[in-house]
Task: inverse folding
C-alpha cells in the first residue's frame, strides 16, 4: 500500500512539473500579440519557477483562450511591491480585478513566479536600481470636466503630501471620476453621490462607476489619497448659484430627427433654475413615440454634439415623463421615451426633476391621397374618411383601377407640405427592403400601416364597390391597420398594334415618294394621315420650330419612320382602353439617330432601354410603361429631341376598369366638363396645346390653338 502511495505522489509531481503559465500585456517579450489572451506567451516551469520578461503592466493566468477563460485562472498582486536595490517581491492572490503594475515603468523587467503561484519576484536590468518612489499625480476626468482625455493638464489636481485639491470655478455639473492619468487607478461612485460638506468614500478599482453632481456654484474638491486604506473626497462650495437662461429639449421634436439642431427652448421660470415650455413630440421614423433629452445649449450643426453643453438624461432606458416630477441625471446620455403628442414640460435644475402634462388633442381626422381618385397626391386636399366608430375610419368608392395607389393622411393644419407628409401612414415594407415596395390591398386586411412609411398601398387588380377601412392605433410602437374589401374585376383581354414601317413603306404607291434634295433618299410626308391598327392610331403634328413632322423614309437598305425634332407623335387607343406599354425599335445603331433621343413626360411614364430579346434585324429598342393605369393614359406623346428612326412600334392597350360591364358607355350631357393636360393635371381654361376632355365617363382628346 505504501508503494502505491509513492507512485501516486510521483505522478502528481510529474503533472505539476509540466504545468504552464500564460502572460499577456502591453509588451510581453515573446508574445505574438498584446492583450490577446488566446495568443498569450506560454511559460514553462523550470527549476521551480516561471520566468518571463515584460515592459509595463501585464496579466498572468493558468489558462488561455477567451478573456473569461483567462480571467478565471488569473493571479494579481496581494498588496504592494517590496523593493530592494535591484529587485522587488510581492505576494499573489487569485482574481482578475486589475492588471499587475510593474515596480518601475518603461523598462524591461525579468519576472519569476514560484511554482505554487503565491509569490512573484521582479529583477531590474543591469545598471538600474530603485530610487525613492515618486508621488502620484491625480486628474479629474469625465463630462463634468470636458471629457475622458487622460492627463488633461487643465484638470490636474494640486498636490500637498497625499492631499490633492481642485477649484471648479463654474461648479460641477455632470459625471466625473478621479484617476492617476491611467485607467488602472480610478476613484468613482460607491453607489451614491457626494453631499456637499460631507466626507465621501469613493469606489475604487480599474473601472468604478461615475460620480454624478449638479453643483452650479464655485466648488472645491479635496481628495485625500491613502494607498493602504480608504481614500476620501470632500466637496465644499462658495458663492451664488448661476443657472442658464434657457434649457433645451433635444430629440424627435417638431417633425425633426434626433440631431444637435433638433431642439425646443424652454423659457426660464419665475424661480431661478426652473424652466417651462410646450414641446411637440412628433415621433421617430415609423413609430408613435419620440426620444428626448435635455441640454444647456443648441447645436450649431447636425454634427455639433459638443455644442449641446451639459446634457441631462433619464435615470434608465425608456423611462417616461409623467405629470409627477421625476429624476433627471446631469451628464447622463440616456433618453426619455414619449408617446407622440404635445406636452407642457417643466424642468427644475434645483431639484433635478422633470414633469410633462399632455395637451388636449383635437379629435383625429384622416383622409386618402393617391391615384385612387381625381385629387391624386394633393396632400393639401385629402378625401376625408368617415369615422364609423371610435378610431375606425372608412371610405367607399364605386370602382378603383388596377395599379391605383394610396396612403392614409392625417387631416390637420400644417405649416408645410413636408409636415403633412410626415403625418401620413404607409404600408409595412419587408424587412431589409431598400426600395420601399408597394403592398397589395385587394381584399386584404388588416395590413399594418406605419407613420412616415415610404411604401404605398396598391390595387393589384381593378375592383368595384370598394370600402377602405383605417383603424387608428395611438399606442406607442404599435401599428395602425388598413383593410380593403370589394368585388374584383377580372382584367379583360387587351388589344395590341404593331406598326412595321418597312412593310408600310413597301405598301405605298410608287408615285407617292418624293426625293430628298439631291440625295437618293426618298420620303412620304405623313403629317396629315398618320396610321391606324386595331383601333390604335398614330398622328403627328409639326412643331412651331420645325416645319417637318413625321415621314416614311427610305435610305439605302433602311425603311423607317422618321420623327423630327420637337414634332410630337401622339399614340392613342380606343375609348374605354388605356395604354399599358409602348415598345419602339430601330435597325440603326443605338446613338445619335436612334431611340435614346426620344422624350416622354416622366410624370406620365417610366422607360427602359432594351438590349436583349430584340426583334430580328433590330439594333436598339426602348420600352415605355405608364406609371398609373387611368383613362388619362389613353394618349401618350413621343417627342424626339432630334431626328429619330422608328423601324417597328408595338403598342399594347388594356380595357379600363370603368369600361367593364358597360360602365361609362353613355354620356351625361349635363355632366360638368373637365380638362387635363397630358401630365394628368387638371386645368381650368385650356389654351395652346393638346388636352384631355372629360364629361361624365366620356374621355376625348382635343387640340386647342
Result:
Amino acid at each position: 500500500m505504501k508503494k502505491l502511495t509513492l507512485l501516486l505522489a510521483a505522478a502528481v509531481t510529474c503533472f505539476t512539473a509540466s504545468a504552464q503559465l500564460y502572460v499577456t500585456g502591453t509588451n510581453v517579450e515573446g508574445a505574438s500579440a498584446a492583450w490577446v489572451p488566446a495568443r498569450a506567451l506560454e511559460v514553462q516551469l523550470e527549476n521551480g519557477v516561471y520566468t518571463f520578461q515584460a515592459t509595463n503592466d501585464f496579466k498572468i493566468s493558468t489558462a488561455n483562450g477567451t478573456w473569461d477563460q483567462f480571467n478565471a485562472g488569473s493571479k494579481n498582486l496581494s498588496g504592494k511591491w517590496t523593493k530592494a536595490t535591484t529587485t522587488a517581491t510581492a505576494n499573489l492572490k487569485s482574481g482578475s480585478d486589475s492588471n499587475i503594475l510593474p515596480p518601475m515603468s518603461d523598462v524591461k523587467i525579468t519576472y519569476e513566479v514560484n511554482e505554487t503561484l503565491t509569490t512573484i519576484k521582479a529583477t531590474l536590468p543591469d545598471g538600474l536600481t530603485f530610487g525613492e518612489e515618486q508621488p502620484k499625480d491625480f486628474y479629474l476626468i469625465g463630462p463634468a470636466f470636458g471629457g475622458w482625455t487622460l492627463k488633461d493638464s487643465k484638470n490636474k489636481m494640486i498636490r500637498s503630501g497625499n492631499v490633492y485639491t481642485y477649484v471648479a470655478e463654474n461648479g460641477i455639473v455632470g459625471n466625473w471620476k478621479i484617476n492617476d492619468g491611467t485607467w488602472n487607478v480610478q476613484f468613482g461612485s460607491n453607489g451614491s453621490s457626494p453631499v456637499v460638506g460631507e466626507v465621501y468614500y469613493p469606489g475604487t478599482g480599474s473601472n468604478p462607476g461615475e460620480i454624478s453632481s449638479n453643483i452650479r456654484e464655485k466648488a472645491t474638491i479635496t481628495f485625500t489619497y491613502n494607498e493602504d486604506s480608504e481614500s476620501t473626497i470632500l466637496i465644499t462650495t462658495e458663492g451664488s448659484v448661476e443657472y442658464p437662461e434657457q434649457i433645451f429639449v433635444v430629440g424627435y421634436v417638431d417633425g425633426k430627427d434626433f440631431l444637435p439642431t433638433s431642439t425646443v427652448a424652454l423659457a426660464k421660470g419665475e424661480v431661478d433654475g426652473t424652466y417651462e415650455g410646450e414641446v411637440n413630440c412628433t415621433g421617430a421614423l415609423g413609430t408613435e413615440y419620440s426620444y428626448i433629452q435635455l441640454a444647456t445649449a443648441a447645436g450649431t450643426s447636425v454634427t455639433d454634439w459638443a455644442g449641446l453643453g451639459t446634457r441631462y438624461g433619464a435615470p434608465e432606458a425608456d423611462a417616461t415623463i409623467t405629470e409627477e416630477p421625476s429624476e433627471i441625471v446631469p451628464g447622463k446620455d440616456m433618453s426619455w421615451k414619449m408617446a407622440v403628442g404635445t406636452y407642457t414640460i417643466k424642468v427644475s435644475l434645483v431639484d433635478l426633476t422633470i414633469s410633462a402634462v399632455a395637451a388636449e388633442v383635437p379629435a383625429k381626422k384622416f383622409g386618402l391621397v393617391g391615384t385612387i381618385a381625381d385629387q391624386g397626391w394633393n396632400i393639401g386636399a385629402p378625401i376625408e374618411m368617415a369615422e364609423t366608430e371610435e378610431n375606425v375610419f372608412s371610405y367607399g368608392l364605386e370602382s378603383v383601377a388596377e395599379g391605383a395607389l394610396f396612403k392614409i393622411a392625417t387631416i390637420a393644419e400644417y405649416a408645410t407640405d413636408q409636415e403633412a407628409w410626415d403625418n401620413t401612414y404607409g404600408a409595412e415594407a419587408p424587412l431589409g427592403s431598400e426600395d420601399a415596395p408597394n403592398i397589395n390591398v385587394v381584399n386584404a386586411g388588416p395590413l399594418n400601416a406605419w407613420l412616415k412609411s415610404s411604401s404605398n398601398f396598391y390595387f393589384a387588380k381593378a375592383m368595384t364597390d370598394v370600402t377602405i377601412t383605417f383603424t387608428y392605433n395611438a399606442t406607442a410602437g404599435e401599428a395602425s391597420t388598413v383593410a380593403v374589401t370589394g368585388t374584383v374585376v377580372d382584367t379583360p383581354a387587351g388589344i395590341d398594334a404593331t406598326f412595321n414601317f418597312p412593310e408600310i413603306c413597301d405598301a405605298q404607291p410608287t408615285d407617292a415618294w418624293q426625293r430628298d434634295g439631291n440625295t437618293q433618299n426618298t420620303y412620304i410626308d405623313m403629317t396629315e394621315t398618320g396610321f391606324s391598327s386595331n383601333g390604335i392610331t398614330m398622328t403627328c403634328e409639326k412643331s412651331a420650330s420645325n416645319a417637318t413632322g413625321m415621314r416614311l423614309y427610305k435610305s439605302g437598305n433602311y425603311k423607317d419612320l422618321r420623327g423630327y425634332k420637337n414634332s410630337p407623335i401622339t399614340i392613342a387607343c380606343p375609348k374605354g382602353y388605356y395604354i399599358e406599354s409602348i415598345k419602339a425599335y430601330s435597325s440603326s445603331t443605338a446613338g445619335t439617330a436612334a431611340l435614346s433621343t426620344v422624350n416622354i413626360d416622366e410624370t406620365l411614364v417610366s422607360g427602359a432601354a432594351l438590349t436583349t430579346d430584340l426583334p430580328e434585324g433590330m439594333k436598339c429598342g426602348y420600352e415605355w410603361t405608364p406609371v398609373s393605369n387611368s383613362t388619362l393614359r389613353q394618349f401618350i406623346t413621343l417627342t424626339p429631341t432630334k431626328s429619330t428612326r422608328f423601324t417597328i412600334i408595338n403598342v399594347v392597350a388594356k380595357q379600363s376598369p370603368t369600361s367593364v360591364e358597360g360602365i361609362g358607355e353613355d354620356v351625361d350631357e349635363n355632366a360638368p366638363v373637365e380638362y387635363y393636360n397630358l401630365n394628368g393635371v387638371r386645368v381650368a381654361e385650356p389654351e395652346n396645346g393638346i388636352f384631355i376632355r372629360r364629361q361624365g365617363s366620356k374621355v376625348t382628346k382635343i387640340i386647342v390653338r
Remarks:
- Confidence is low (pLDDT under 50) at residues 1-18, 659-667.
- The chain is about 5% helix and 45% strand.
- The first strand starts at residue 20 and ends at 28.
